[in-house]
User: Fold these one by one.
Assistant:
Number 1:
Amino acid sequence: MPDITRGVRAFTIGTAISRVLGLIRESVFAFLFGAGFATDAFNAAFRIPNLFRDLFAETALSAAFIPVLAAEKQKGKQQQNQVASNMINILLLTAGLLVILGIIFAPFIVRIVAFGFGRIPNKIALTSVLTSIMFPFLLFIALAAWAMGYLNTEQKFFIPSLAPALFNIFSIATPLTLYAYFVHRGMDPIYGMAVGVLVGGFMQFAIQVPQLYKQGFRYHLYLNFRDPAFRKIMTLFLPVAIGLAASRINVTVDTILISLLAERSMTWLNYAYRIMHLPLGLFGIAVGTVALPTLSTLVAAEKHDDVRATFIDSLKLVLFLTVSTSIIIAFLALPITRLIYERGKFMPVDTTATMQALILYVIGIPFVACVRNIAALYYAYNDAKTPMYASFAAVGVNIILNLSLMHVIGFRAFPLATTLSSLVNVIILLIAIKRRIKTEWIVPLLAVYGKLIVPSCFAGGVGLAISYAISKYVGMSLIVQIGSIMISGMIAVLCFYGGCLIVGIRDARSYVKRLIKR
């Protein structure tokens, strides 16, 4: 059985750098703009090109591109490069056309997606301009995802996972550089954030180009919609895209509903979501990203016993990593949120609201991560329809929950619905996958999940107690807050590991050794 932990380690290191920089980006954003009129407009505007991101970028493109490219690779580098070149040319054509249409029709799109903003003068207008500025981001991020797919097929994970760091670096530097420029000219400095998104998106692609060349990619001026490999990609892509279209409709509905809530609701949710994506990207997405090309290669070689063993191992690993981190972060949600955001124009009331959303988001991290990893097996077997149907069901549950709860618990309804709908998605995929995995493994997997909760809660409680003691007796300066999170977090992780050994989780030692070995 192939050991995916080496790839997971490389992806996690790169992602850790990227996600930490992402949190710094959000911290700078909070410092400069706080939570209010302009930040709501920016977040709504950024969501619009992101509605298409999963289709043209990471999720659908990777799910369809990597399994086919892995099979074509066995025919030789020339064939692999021809398929990859055809794919990038088609992306340039289709995503480029969509960007042009998005810029032209931005005012109309905004009036639909964020129509609740119409109650506040000039908010729709600002959102429309920001949307027009940021729409080309979609093309850059699609190219970056294509490059990531090629490199992942070559079992190269570090540079693709590090690439978003360039996005975050330029998303930080650009608004800081342009802030005074826009203020001096009487313009809203939030425009600097939009320009930073554009520059950062381009750099996320550019950093991968040298590695592509090193791995033997050579571009061909080849565009053929009838190419057999492209047709295979589309056979996988369309069901994934349809399933994602349902989730994108869900995001659109969420945006519409959130725009009807109190001002700052969208900003609070966005800040919480950014924190949640740190552990999700480090562990949940990392395992799924590495597992997809590995499983695809094993399926192409018809090594079905290795497929089964690798899949079960990846799910146990993702639970080991995400259950612990999500619960520890939930316990430490207040000091983490305060450290990252509470300064400048970001007030304590914003910290409290963001913390509440964060807790509801992070408890669903294991479910979101499992969806990604279970879907990888379906995609490896060229089955994109089952994840699509599961996505439909989860989206329906999410919308119903949001409509039912938004007037009861306000903005908190949205992260809670995200968590519960992800659980529904996992359940459907687990039930349906029995025909692929013949051995009984679901009950043992649930037992592992249940066992992990106990040491995780113990670790989170210890971490919270240490954080509280430090803030009470040492103070709340920035340096103290950083030290407090580091100390309480590290002790919590050690407590979790010790708790795993006490409750008899035998794989704990194995996972730690595999993750840290060279």
Number 2:
Amino acid sequence: MIGFPKILHQLHLFEEEGVPYAADLDKARVVELSAVMMDILKLAETQTDDAIVETLSTSYEENDISEAFERFAELEREGLLFNRGEDLERSLATESKWRKLLVAIPGINVDSFFDIETLSAGTNMALAHMIQHLTKYADLHFTGSRNRKIADGVYEIDIGIGDLVRLRSQIAQTYYGILTLHQEQDRWLLPLYRHPEFPPILVQNHAPRGHGGQAINSMLRHYAAMRDWDGFTAPSDYVRDFYSEYVWDPSFFNTLPNGVDATLFKPMEKMVAKREIAAEVGDDRIESVPTVGYLSRVQSEKGASVYLKLAELNPHLIFLIAGPNMGRYASRKLPDNLVYVGFHPRERLPLIYNAFDVYCFMSMSGEETFGLTVLEAMACGVPPIVPNFDGVPSVVGDAGLVADAQNFDHDVATLVSYPCPVDFSEKINILLDDAETWREFSQRARKRAVAFTWDKTARRIVQLFEGLHQKRKLANPHRLLNVFTSTQPSEDDEQQRLKHKSLVLSMNAHYERCLMRDAVYPLSVEDGVALSILKNHTTREAEALLAALIPDETQARITLKRVRGLIDGTA
């Protein structure tokens, strides 16, 4: 059974050459029906499954009715014909939040954001925390295939990714902004930038480079396609600084730091934590020997191989590994002072961190814009040591030590750096050889960590959307008319060659006079090209074209700035 009665989409039922069809106007799809399915739809909003079977049993065989129900169940899973779950409009009527954001993150189960134990990747954990705190400032509607309330202020709505462009007018009327996540292989987002109706779009980025250049190229495509009132977010200033080498307008990259739950992650009696972990793994050395900690997937890109070298370099210390498993290292002969302490649920992670005297963050991938585990360790009063690359040092500040790393000018098989084991080893011993130094860094770590809160992150998102709306108000959709022409040289021109220029008219495409008088104004050909490009393309696309056409990049930048000023000044 399917669970009638159900709310139907806007349907147009019709027949073509004796075959019944339903045109789903909400989804812009036409579905072929059987005769019994057509009759069921006429009863779908008012009668239960049993009542429908009883009503139609005199006209159709039981198997035909059963097959029709099965077909309706398939269509419902595809998001067609029915609004599944509760009536969203009625639910929204009870909400008092002042703004609504549309959250579009395909490929991730919405419910997982409210069950953090099901998440492993730091990016998804950060999103989950951010989303839960963002509900204090806005209602969140996730794209999906049914209408239902997930939590206070959080809904799944019957709008798929493929529906966004078609429903852009309704989306524009309903939502203050669209929040999404940059994913390299996604192409669905690029068409949205072509439509000025959509509210501002914020694209969260947690992987500024890597994957053989694919991440950078994908980001540059989005940057080029974005409207003036869209933008990226990233957890650290590093991403903006990194992309300033590639783009002319790094203001599109906005810093959105992660946070930490300082009430969960906090210092505890260190010997108590060590004693409990020692008892669990059966290794009493953890209680009496200084410990170094690693909490991550035990993989090359996370620095596992370098961490093993640290253990070999420091036989007088205990090196603890907390992760899902030992991966390919499980079959190796490991250093005697390396101890695997297992995989633990999130509520036990503070105990694990507190069993560490020092925390080593060893990741070498191009996806480390922040280092969430670093902040969690700091909140527990554990001094961190991190490599000198990407965004992690900016999180640590003066609350930990930064070790040398060989940074690559481009990624090699997803790796962008190689942390120096010798310098890491020296930094570890600096902290562990002097109790006063360790205590000072421990206090700094906790003090710095508590300044990063998820509530600040949520408020920052709202502020960013407010700023993008201001940009939208300043945008000029009109463009001046211009033509290109050649002019005959004057008699005293020694070269006697045709001259080329662009003429800008004193009106825009709506034939509104925008300049002082009814005249034409000569521009350089380069200025005219920029003006023509900007009639149908974004400023970032014009940036790419001018960089290719004008050999001097400085001159190309000046040209674009001048023409944008002309456009904005004639809004």
Number 3:
Amino acid sequence: MCGLAGVFGHSNTDFRVDRLELESMSRQMSTRGPDGHGLWIDSERRIGMAHRRLAVVDLTNQAMQPFFSGDGHLTIVFNGEIYNYCELRSELKKHGAVFRTQSDTEVLLALYARDGSSMCRYLRGMYAFVIWDSRAGCLFMARDPFGIKPLYLHDYGGVVRFASQVKALLAGGGIVPGLSQSGLNGYQLWGSVPEPLTVFDTVKALPPGTWRQFRMDAAVEQGSFDSVDTMLSGNRPSPYKNLKEALVDSVKAHLVADVPVGVFLSAGIDSGAIAALSAECVQKSGQVLKTVTLGFEEFRGTANDETPVAEMLARRLSTDHSTVWLTRDDFETCLQEFFAAMDQPSIDGLNTWLVSRAASQAGLKVAMSGLGGDELFGGYPSFRQVPWMRYLARPFAGFPRVGRSIRRVCLPALKRFTSPKYAGLLEYGHHWGGAYLLRRGLEMPWDLPRDASFELPALPPSLNAVRHSNQAAVGYLETACYMRNQLLRDADWAGMAHSLEIRVPLVDAPLLRFVAGQRQRGCVFTKRDLAKCAEPGLPSNIARRPKTGFTVPLSKWADLENTHPRGLQGWQALVLDRYFDSCSLQRPSP
């Protein structure tokens, strides 16, 4: 896991790279790569790239990125992990490729040299990378299909700037940040900014599963190679015989590293299953798995205290376990550091930031998370509630004025005794994006200014014909919206703030294709099936435990009851204020 940045004057012949800008972008991402950094500018100064390295694979390789091909005409900066790089390396060697290192970075260069923009279809992993091809005079970049690893672009005036973090682009000083009202509206609705938007109008995320190419002659080409909806269609054959085989294969792939790999362990099925499967794999090689659990003094002895169950599971699995206890004083002490690390405003990054700090303090560089289990196995209430809302509201689909009028009449009364979201059921509930917003949204469109622009999530047409389409539709929305825009993004910046690589074995393309393919055949897997695959390591009391979610005592810590009467919305407003403070920018007026 690393950080990358760069500048390329693709259609501005007068542009010259400023070394100080690159150094400032790189310095902003210093925690992403404490093990080394490098910077390269070509002789004409039309392009420059910087890199920060967190050494996880090929520790003996002292060559810092930017990394060059053997003939010198390819240069790469890379953030992420390619889990099938050993297999790809063996295949490429059969076709004459020569390697100087044991790294996955060099495999990417050899694959690009052979296949160009078609290379990404062979990759299994989490990644964002940029390759400069001096012979072709083009800059090629790509991002993994789930969007696990970020890549942000600012393309203006014939110059494209790119980085692993939005704040790195700002730190370079080469852009004038204007606020994106659409991005801010998205944050108000969802609690995170929906991609490809950011809160800055000229900074956008490269869409997941896509590549883009900038040429010296000003031509810009782009294409896609994979997507969540393509995986969910279940049309591609899978090599796995059963779910256990698919899960073990993903866990084994995510354990590939030249440093110890740990697990975030809570009292839930997802992290428990990952820990049990990982311990089984690790113990066969004579090693001991490290696990980390957070405990909160405010929760001690209550139903929200996950430490007793997690510690019991750790003993059962014979892991090297650490329980880290936190108090309100710890929260107040670290709050400024937390907001300084936050790369885009999010209401839900604190838990990941805290557990990442604990894992780093336990000596880990890599930790696995159970993130993605609810999306993959239908664990959220939304898998029941969103289709139910669509069923109730469908008769009103052709009468938008009726739904809008009913909402206006009912809203004042509903606010007094229940969620005001119910007022919008007939107006928004008849289509997937609207019903999903009613389930996941923090605020509703009628809370925005009258002329505010926003887009509801849209369901790809390819999923309408999929068997068990309700499950696939909600799975797509949860994966492409909540997981991508909040959970995965938070995992990236919050983990990297502590120089920790967070891996997500349940967010894996071959695994999702298998689960989707089985669903097409009438076999819909649930969280209980996940738990069964982790037996006997995962005991039945965890397998039967109802979903609680990983929570922190935020209301007590931030004193939301007194300082922010609107509860979670109050925290949301506080986050935005502190975020803009951390960027040295003034927050826009509401």
